[in-house]
Amino acid sequence: MKKLLIKNILIFSLFFLFIVIPFLVSAQGGFIPCDGGLSDECGYDDLLILVNNVIDWIIKISVPIAAGVFAWAGIKYMTTGIADQKSAAKEMIKKVFIGFVFILSAWIIVTTVTNTLLKDEFKEAVPVQGVK
Count of domains in the chain? Predict the structure, then answer.
């Protein structure tokens, strides 16, 4: 039983790493938009861009993680004959779905509210991609 658990954890970890590593090592640039790091060259606009970069990264990384966990829970649900493990797999699918919907709905709500409340001249002043 313990060897099977270790094998399952190893397979899931490798699958997770193959999905996550491309996002971690993308050569499109870093999170910090200003060149000076913590110097005086960074301003409020750079802070907003940094927050936007982090939110975009969280959304991009949540898609493959949710897909992997859905696949893992589906395999676990289909291959087991024990009722407790089937209910645990169902609960896992339910929790991942709720979390994924929460992440996407939070982004949609914030983008919609900022697009609705900000006038056009202020949208250009705020360097957030979802606002423009």
Answer: 1
